[in-house]
Amino acid sequence: MRQIRICLGSSCYSRGNNVHLEVIRKYIAENHLDAEITFSGHLCEELCSEGPVLRIDDKIYKGVTFSGLFRILEEEFSNKH
Whose CA is closest to 4, among 77, 81, 78, 71? Predict the structure, then answer.
């Protein structure tokens, strides 16, 4: 099972993960990935100056933007490749 962990520390949350949280939930639901992905929040990834931070399995994405989030999700979870 794949895992997505979103940093919900105050810095990452205020820099965009408050919105990214809902975008990821919606992406998982719309692509019927509920059985394949565990999605959870994490208090802090200790990369505050590089946030917003998102961890997918063992890969850490730093400085995640709203426009870049969909690309990341597609690269990681799209069945097109």
Answer: 77
Overall domain count for the chain: 1
The residues with which 54 forms a beta bridge, in sequence order, are 6, 61
Q: What strand order describes the sheet that includes 54-56?
A: 37-42, 2-7, 54-56, 59-61
d(CA 73, CA 56): 9
Rounded Cα gap, residues 52 and 10, in angstroms: 10
pTM over 0.85: yes
CATH number of residue 62's parent domain: 3.40.30.10
pLDDT in tens, 16-38: 999 999 999 999 999 999 999 99
Amino acid at 63: G
Q: Which domain holds residue 13?
A: 2-77
